[in-house]
Amino acid sequence: MIRTSQHSRNKLATAIKLGLIASVSSTTFTVSNTAFAEEAGADVERIAVTGSRIQRQDMETASPVTVIGADEIRAEGFTTVDELLQAQTSMGGKAVGSSTNNGADGVAQVDLRGMGSQRTLVLLNGRRMVNSGSGANSSVDLNSIPVAMIARVEILKDGASAVYGSDAIAGVVNIITKKDFEGFQVDVQGGMTDKSDGENGEISALYGFNTDTGNYTFGAAYSERKGVIQSDRDWTDPGNSSFIPNGSLGGKVKDENGNWVDRSEGYDFTQDSFYQTPSKRYSLFANMTQELGDDIVMTGDILYTKRKSNQQLAPQPANIMLDVCAPGDDPMTCLELDQDMIDAGITPDKNGQVNYRKRMNDVGPRIYNQDTDTWRISAGLEGSLDINTGMNWDASYTYGNNKAKTGVENSINANLMADAIYADQDPWLTGKPMTDQDVLNSVSYDEEADGGNEQHVFSAGLNGELFDLDAGAVAFAIGAEYRYESGYYNPDPIVVAGESTAAQQDPTDGSYNVISVFQEVSVPFTDKLTGEFALRFDDYSTFGNASTWKIGLTYEATDDLMLRTVAATGFRAPSVSELYGGNSGSYDYLVDPWGNEKDPQILVNRTSDEDLKPEESESYTAGLVYSPSYVDGLSLTVDYWRFKVENAITRLDTQAGIDACYGGDASACETFNIGADGDLSNLTNSLTNVGFQDTSGVDFNLAYNFEALSLDWVVSNDTTYLLNFEQDGKEYTGTIDGNFGAYAEVRNNFSIKAGQGDWSVMYFNRYIGEMDDLATGDTVDSVLYHNLSATYFINDDWMLSAGVKNFTDEDPSKVSNGSDGGTVPEVYDVIGRTYFAGVTMKF
Fold it and tell me: Is the pLDDT reported for residue 10 higher than 90?
C-alpha cells in the first residue's frame, strides 16, 4: 500500500492549495476548501500531483496548476471537454472544436497559451492519451473523452518535458476520471438556443461497487449536438464567392441576353455552412482498483468512444483549366472559342488553356462525415518494496488505438467534368441550371478515406524518500519508459490521382519509437525553502536523443506568503504526419509577379521531411501565493510566465519566397521549386525547422470564500495579461485573425456564487479584450459574456440544475479575415443565447 505519514497543515498550505485550484471554478472552491480544512496532525495519504512523479503528502509545488471540478463543469453547462478548456483565460490562438466547420474533420483540441495544440500534452489519469482524429494526427481529439466520466481537469501551466517528455512545451492537461464510486447514478442534461436550434443533450449512467479489497466503476454516455447554419444569425455577413452556380469562363459570365459580361455578384456560401457542427458520441468507460495482497495494488481503466460527426460547406467550387482547340483538334477533347467569346476578352493563356469556374449547386452541398472509434486501455501495478523504507514502485502499460472512416459527399471529378464540357459545352456555358442528371452523376462522386493512430507505452518507476535532512526528507522518483507511435491516412484514390477538383494529396504512413529514462528529486533545504529538480533523457528512432531539465524553488516567506519559480527546457518531437506525410496540395491566395498565373489561388505542394529535428524550448515562471491572515478565506496568486521555442517545425512564407525568386534569389527559386520564367506549376513548400515563438504574460487568480447575509459566498477571478506573442518574426500581441486566432492582451473570468443549504445560484462572466485586426489594423471590439446558473438538491438522491449562457445574446466581434461569417467562431460565441438544464438521479 502507499505509505502515509503525519502532516501538519497551516494557513499557507491551505492557501497554496486554493492558489493551485484558483480559476473560474467557484464550485470547486467550495468542495476543495472543505477537503483542505482538516485538523492538524491528520493522516494524509501520499498523492500524485500533475507535473511531478514524486508521491507527495501535499499539493505544494513550484508550478502553477488550475483545477476544474466536475461540479463546475455541470454548473457552467459544458458538454464537451474542449468547450470548458477554451473558456479558460490561459488559452489562446485558434483551437479547433465544435464551431470549426472547415478542415478539422470534427476533432476538438486545446491550445494552451495559443502556442498550438501540438505543444500541449493531454494525459488521462496521468498517462498519455493516444492522438486521434482522421488519421496520422499530432494531437488528442478531446471528443474521445466524455464529460460524464470526468472528476476534475488539472491544467499545468508550465513546461513539463523533463517530467513527461515530448509535447509538454506549453503545459499539460491532465483529465482525471471518476473512480471509487459506489451506487448507481443517472445524469440527463440538454440545451438549445433561444432561436430554437443548436440543440444538444447528454445522458450518462455511472455504476460502482466496493469489495473487501477494491472498487469497480463503470459508465456509459451518449451525447448529441445539432447544427446551426451561418445564415440563420442576422449579424452574419453574406458571402461573396467568385464561384457562382451559373459558371464563368475566363472571368466572364453570360447575361440574360446571352452576352458574355463581367461577373456582377458572387455566391452567398453562408446559407450552406455551419457555425455549430452536428455530432453524435457513444462512450463506455470503466475504472478498477484491486488489492492483490502483499502491499500490491492493481489499477486499470478502459475507454471506448465512437464519434459520428458532420460538417457542411457550399457546393464544390469546380476550378478547371480547359484546353482550347487549335486548328485540326478533335472538338471532343478541347473547348472551341467562338468570336463572341474572343470579343469579350476570353483568350487562352500561354499554355493554351482558359479557366472555367462553377459552383456545383446542381450536385448539392459538400457534406463531410466522420466515423471514428477510439480505444484506450491502461493497467498498472504499484506497491511498496518495504513499508519501513518508504520506497514505492509502479509499472504500467497503456494501449491506445484510433481508427476513422471519413468521406465527402458531392465531390467533383475534374477530369470527367472537363470531358463532359468538351462533349457538350452548351449546357455548361449557358448559365442555366444543369438538368441532365446522368451527366451530373457522371462528374460527381463521394470521397472515401480512412486513417488511424496507435500507441503503446510501457513505464516503470521507483519513488520514495532517500534520506532525512534537518528540514525533512529528500524525496525522489526515477523511472524508464518505452513508447511506440504509428499513424496512417489514405485519401480517396481520385484525390491521390489528382483528378478531383480538390487539391491532390498523397497517403501518409509511418511510425517511430522512443526509450526514455527520467528522475526527479525534491530537497527541503530549510523549513522554508524547497528545491525541485528533474532530468530526462529520450532516445528516438527518428532524429536521435534529447535531454531536458527542470529546476523549481518554493520559499515560504511568511505564514501568509509563498514565493515560487521554475526554469525548464522542453522539446517536441516531429509527428508521424510531419515526418512521413505525403504531398498535400493547397490552393493559397498568392500573387504571381511574373503574371503567368491569373488565378489568385495558386496550387502549393505541401510536403513533409523525414529529416526533421525536434523543436526546442525554454520556459520560466515566477510567482507568489498570498493568503492574508487578516482575511479568512481569501487567496491570491500572481505568476509571470515566458515560453520560448526555437527550431519550430513550420513552413516558410510562400509569397516571400516567390518575391525573392522574382528578385533574382536563385536559392529561393530552388527552395520553392520555381521553374524558369516563373513557372509555378510545381510550387512546393516543405516543412522545416525554421520557426520561432516567444510569448510571455502574467496570470492573476483570486479566490474568496465567506459568509454574509446568512449565505455562503464564493467569489473567484481569473485574469491573464498577455505581454508578448511573437512568431516567426511577426508580432501577434493584441491581434486577431481568421487563420491564427486571437491573442488578446486581456482575458478575464469572474464568478460569484451564493448558496444556502440545498440551493445555490451563480453568475459568471467572460471577457475578451479588444484587439487589432491583423489584416487591416482596425480595432476589433471587446466582448463580455454573461452566464447564469442555479442548482437545487430536492433530496440526497435528486439534484436539478439550469442556466443560460450568453444571457445578453452578445454578437461576436467582426474580423475581416475571419470565417465565412465574418468573425472567428473558435474565439467568439457565434451561437447566441443558450438555455440548459439537467437532472441527477442517484439510486
Answer: no
Place of cell 433561444: 194
3-state helix/strand/coil string of 544-587: EEEEEEEEEEEEECCCCEEEEEEEEEEEECCCHHHHHCCCEEEE
Tell which residue, 649, 651, 826, 742, has the closest CA to residue 167. 649
Report how far residue 103's alpha carbon sits from residue 115's, in angstroms, rounded to the nearest whole number.
Answer: 19
Cα separation, 411 vs 446, whole angstroms: 6
The dihedrals phi and psi of 804, each to the nearest 5 degrees, come to -140, 135
Instruction: Write b or e for each residue in 70-109: b if 16 or more Cβ atoms lie within 10 A of its Cβ, otherwise e.
Output: bbbbbbbbbbbbbbbbbbbbbbbbbbbbbbbbeebbbbbb
SS3 breakdown of the chain: % helix, strand, coil, rounded to 5? 15, 50, 35
Check: CB of residue 382 under 8 Å from CB of residue 461: no
Which residues face 288 on adjacent strands?
Answer: 216, 300
CA atoms within 13 A of residue 570's CA, in its CB half-sphere: 30
* Residue 426 three-state SS: helix
Q: How far is CA 799 from CA 391, 713, 755, 760, 839, in A?
A: 44, 20, 14, 11, 6
Q: pLDDT, tens digit, for every residue of 189-246? A: 999 999 999 999 999 999 999 999 999 999 999 999 999 999 999 999 888 888 999 9
DSSP single-letter state for residue 232: G
List all residues 6 or more positions away from 358 whose beta carbon is below 8 Å from its beta carbon.
243, 244, 245, 246, 247, 248, 317, 318, 428
One-letter amino acid of 612: L
Tell me what pLDDT residue 56 has: 63
Mean confidence (pLDDT) of the chain: 91
Task: Pull the grid cell for residue 535.
Answer: 532530468
Residue 841 amino acid letter: M
C-alpha cell at 477: 522518483
Q: Record the cell numbers describing residue 824, joined without a space.
A: 472567428
Which residues neighbour 214 within 8 Å (Cβ) at sequence distance 6 or greater? 288, 289, 290, 291
The torsion angle over the Cα atoms of residues 234, 237, 242 and 247, rounded to 10 degrees, is 10
- The label of the residue with cell 455548361 reads 428
- Cell numbers at 462, concatenated: 521507483
Closest by CA position to 155, among listed 127, 120, 108, 128: 120
Task: Please say if the pLDDT value at position 25 is more than 50.
Answer: no
pLDDT at 433: 83
The per-residue pLDDT for 611 is 95
pTM, two decimal places: 0.90
Cα end-to-end distance, the chain, whole Å: 31
- Given a contact cutoff of 8 angstroms between Cβ atoms, the answer to whether 774 and 736 are in contact is yes
What DSSP element (H or E) covers 72? helix 70-75
Distance of alpha carbon 197 from alpha carbon 238, whole angstroms:
20
User: Whose CA is closest to 698, among 780, 782, 640, 630?
Assistant: 640
Q: Cα separation of 692 and 729, whole Å?
A: 7
Question: Backbone dihedral region of 493: left (phi > 0), alpha (psi from -120 to 50 degrees) or beta?
Answer: alpha
**Taking Cα atoms as reference points, which of 587, 103, 505 lies closest to residue 320?**
587
Q: From CA 103, how far away is CA 106, in angstroms rounded? A: 8
* Range 142-155 burial, b when 16+ CB lie within 10 A, else e: bbbbbbbbbbbbbb
Q: Cβ contacts of residue 3 below 8 Å, gap of 6+? A: 46, 384, 387, 390, 392, 464
What pLDDT score was predicted for residue 30? 31
Cβ atoms within 10 Å, residue 233: 20
Closest CA to 52 of 445, 382, 475, 471: 475
Dig out the grid coordinates for 273 from the structure: 455552412
User: For residue 821, is pLDDT > 90?
Assistant: no
DSSP code string of 589-609: E---TTS---SSEEEEEEE--
Q: How would DSSP label each residue in 135-178? A: SS-SS--GGGS-GGGEEEEEEE-S--HHHH-TT-SSEEEEEEEP
